Automatic annotation (TrEMBL), chain A:
Keyword set, alphabetical order: Electron transport, Membrane, Mitochondrion, NAD, Respiratory chain, Translocase, Transmembrane, Transmembrane helix, Transport, Ubiquinone
Organism ancestry: Eukaryota, Viridiplantae, Chlorophyta, Chloropicophyceae, Chloropicales
Signal sequence, start to end: none
Name of the gene encoding the protein in the UniProt record: nad6
Species, as recorded: Chloropicon primus
Record field: catalytic activity: a ubiquinone + NADH + 5 H(+)(in) = a ubiquinol + NAD(+) + 4 H(+)(out)
Protein name, entry field: NADH-ubiquinone oxidoreductase chain 6
GO cellular-component term (any): mitochondrial membrane
Automatic annotation (TrEMBL), chain B:
Enzyme Commission (EC) number: 7.1.1.2
Superkingdom of the organism of origin: Eukaryota
Major localization listed first in the record, in broad terms: membrane
High-level lineage: Eukaryota, Viridiplantae, Chlorophyta, Chloropicophyceae, Chloropicales
Membrane topology: Multi-pass membrane protein
Subcellular location: Cell membrane; Membrane
Taxonomic source organism: Chloropicon primus
Protein name: NADH-ubiquinone oxidoreductase chain 1
Automatic annotation (TrEMBL), chain C:
Protein known as: NADH-ubiquinone oxidoreductase chain 4L
PANTHER family registered for this protein in UniProt: NADH DEHYDROGENASE SUBUNIT 4L-RELATED (PTHR11434:SF21), NADH-UBIQUINONE OXIDOREDUCTASE SUBUNIT ND4L (PTHR11434)
Keyword Transmembrane found: yes
Lineage: Eukaryota, Viridiplantae, Chlorophyta, Chloropicophyceae, Chloropicales
HAMAP family: NDH1_NuoK
Any Gene Ontology CC annotation: NADH dehydrogenase complex
Membrane topology of the entry: Multi-pass membrane protein
Amino acid sequence: MNLFLAAFAALGISSSIMVIRANNPVYSVLYLILVFVNVSGILILQGLDFFAMIFLVVYVGAIAVLFLFVVMMLNIKVEEKQESMLRYLPVGGGIGLIFFLEVVIGLDKEFVPLNLLSLGPSYESEILPEYLHWGETLAQKTGIEAIGQVIYTYYFYYFFMASFILLVAMIGAILLTLHNDPKVKRQEVFEQNAREFSRTIQKAS
Amino acid sequence: MSYFLGVLLKILGLVVPLLLGIAFMVLAERKVMGSIQRRKGPNVVGVFGILQPIADGLKLMVKETVLPSNANLMIFLAAPVLTFMLALISWSVIPFGDGLVLCDLNIGVLYLFAVSSLGVYGVIMAGWSSNSKYAFLGALRSTAQMVSYEVSLGLILISTLIFAGSLNFTEIVESQKEVWFAVPLFPLFIMFFISCLAETNRAPFDLPEAEAELVAGYNVEYSSMAFALFFLGEYGNMILMCTFCSIMFLGGWLPLPILSSFDFMPPGFWLGLKAAFFLFGFIWVRASFPRYRYDQLMRLGWKVFLPLSLAWVFFVSGLMIGNDWLP
Amino acid sequence: MSLIHSLHVSFVVFLLGLVGIYLNRKNIILVLMSIELMLLGINLNLLSFSVSLDDLLGQVFALFILTVAAAESAIGLAILVIYFRLRGTIDIEFIRLMKG
């Protein structure tokens, strides 16, 4: 299982490096898809099967298709991007390094006690008190049921908010990109169907 | 070790009959279309042309793979492999009987949906990497069509899932013991079938490969085995969609109530019978209907199917909650 | 499956998104993709903690972040498309000139 995790993590991280360093935007999008797929693999390893599938459906099936479409349709020229890289490297790299070290050191320092498996079974009782695994004692529920029971009760305001955000995004995207060209002829199906034959053709005289 | 061997054998036992099924599906399509159009269809190779698909496959195998000089080779070669792989891996959650399934996933329907949404990429990668106008236009059409119809497909699925109360295929079939979902949800059933036609790029929605305008759509530049992989993937997806349809609406492996004297038949037989019914429908539709225009296709997807299926979600959930019928 | 490993992955993905915004300032589509990467990193972080702490709140918020990411990319790409139609370019060097 750790082998799978290592494979997914390595592939995911290396393809996210390729996302930002590929010299063709189409490659970037394809690598982005690879990142999403690998992250869903990691989620499956964690037992979050529902979220892995939702990631695939939403990120890969919807968002990445949008990106791919836009990148392919706009036909952006491949531009030289190496030139300005060194200019901001000292400052940006320094800040980035500080951030990186801070989080990495923080991760290993702060969360080691929670990470029981990495310490081995002997340390378990010394560091943490014995606690009950409620997940095993309570009735079994699948992930979707549990999320549904929470999301439709306690967090339904947030759920509304999310749906409104999606609605606004949908209306906004349609309004922005819909562009009525008067030259384009459109088919009016209802008008066609409502037209009566006897009124359409009339005898002259 | 023996565990892996067992899994491998199971996978082979699923894939080999599938490939054979695809081969004979092609033959059946040509034969049925021939009968509908009052001609004979393939009848030279073997008795009644039964060996025709083998001959076709052999021909495709021994031909040379032509690689266009302007193509983006990596993506060009990856696209057919991806299409074929995605068509195969979605079969792992399809149950052929009670427990006769490779992986009884808890969220099988979602898995199938995710895999079918990945199927877009094979098409668009093929179209883009061929570096040809026809292929690119075909791929764009095909992608837009598949994405649009996936939305209505998902909404239709939600209604049936509310009835079934589970995302597991086995439980969905078990919950149809009383009545098949095609009976109470008949309009959705029809819409699902039509969406399946559009999702698999079949006639009358085969705009991506409109022969008159686009030669062959996204796979113009492909030849020999690469083309064969696309072909196999497409027909595999077709059979998959038909099986999916029969699991969701016609009770999967449950026997036909009117043929109760045939109850001794294995469950896979019934599933195959129902899937064959839909496949015949696919061919019949192809032989009978003229092709849609692209704006009509988009209109049907976004302005007819999407509102209708959304309304059905509201109706079904209201009905279930109001009568306290939720499973 | 330990928390630390997936936290590292999520953090590195987030950081790479950040670096991507910084490196690809000229190409706005890549900036949008980098934002997607950052949101993905955050999502993975929330989900990992949700599994580790046995708390559903993380998953619920991951769902909301997912919707926000979808909405953000849809609107962003719509703006890009309409900008390209108006100006014929989506170079950031020209977008920052607010005229017309």
